[in-house]
Amino acid sequence: MSSNKKLQMDYSERLACSSAIIKKAKELGASVAGICDLTQLKTAPSFTLAPKLPQADVGSRESSLGLKPGEVLWPKDAKSALVIAYEHPKDQLELDWWFGKHNPPGNRILVDINKDLSAWVEENYPIKTYPCPYHVEKGGIFLKDSAYHAGLGCIGKNNLFITPEFGPRVRLRAMLFSVKMPSSGPSAFDPCKDCESPCLQSCPSNAFNEVIYSAATMGQEILPGRTGTYSREKCNSQMVIDSGNAQEQNVPEVSHEPVKVIKYCRNCEFSCPVGK
């Protein structure tokens, strides 16, 4: 089916299309999936906060597109985003490991799901799809905000995205659609409200021990770690330690030579009781 034709559907037809796409995403391997409206994201907390934060607290990559913090460069005809999540359980730790410069297996699975789903959508509907880069500064979207508006869960006190089914033990990926699809969220799900927050106490770098950002100085109520306590700098310092502790191993599936296998800290994920 031609992807250049404009999709002419009433609301009920677009709703059916949205449901079919979400169902297909799960058939292809996504643990959960949902759709959000891009206009919602432009006023989401991460987008409005990013221009006010130091660059080091926003993204981990230099923008090759000349984007400032919080700026995005989406295709002009992009109107909706599909967000998929893939479970990273404790008994499959290798899904999250870096093998030298090779992406973690879990991320490669997400990329493959998106690739197959993109082909299926464009074959069956007059919709143009745009798989998103992982990094916002490379043209992507803030995945946690997107997942919230798609109804997959909420952003917790540990600054991780938390799903009802798997807690924070998931990884996210997205693609954009050229058609305005009905949103499948947000959800009222909020397990952190009455939780004693074992995740915050398990951090080896004490990344949640003090208030760094305030609503008064940032001009908004929703902050990193919800109340402004999450320190990306401290979290990154633990990642540097983990990277330095990586040991070389023989991994024939990814390299003919030994590679360093990096196993980043996931204490805050594994101590979260949600989804267990």
Shape: globular
> How many separate structural domains?
1
Q: Tell me the distance between the termini.
A: 42 Å
The amount of helix comes to 25-40%
Unreliable stretches (pLDDT < 50, length at least 5) are: 1-6
The major sheet is characterized as: 4 strands, antiparallel
Can you summarize this structure?
The chain is of the alpha+beta class and 276 residues long. The protein has helices at 11-27, 38-41, 45-49, 105-124, 143-149, 198-201, 215-218, 232-244, 267-270, and strands at 32-37, 80-87, 98-99, 129-131, 154-155, 161-162, 170-177, 247-249, 259-262. The strands form 3 sheets. Strands 1-2-7-4 form a 4-stranded antiparallel β-sheet, sandwiched between helices. A 3-stranded antiparallel β-sheet has the order 3-9-8, with helices on one face.
SSE layout:
Blueprint: H1 11-27, E1 32-37, H2 38-41, H3 45-49, E2 80-87, E3 98-99, H4 105-124, E4 129-131, H5 143-149, E5 154-155, E6 161-162, E7 170-177, H6 198-201, H7 215-218, H8 232-244, E8 247-249, E9 259-262, H9 267-270
Antiparallel strand pairs: 1-2, 2-7, 3-9, 4-7, 5-6, 8-9
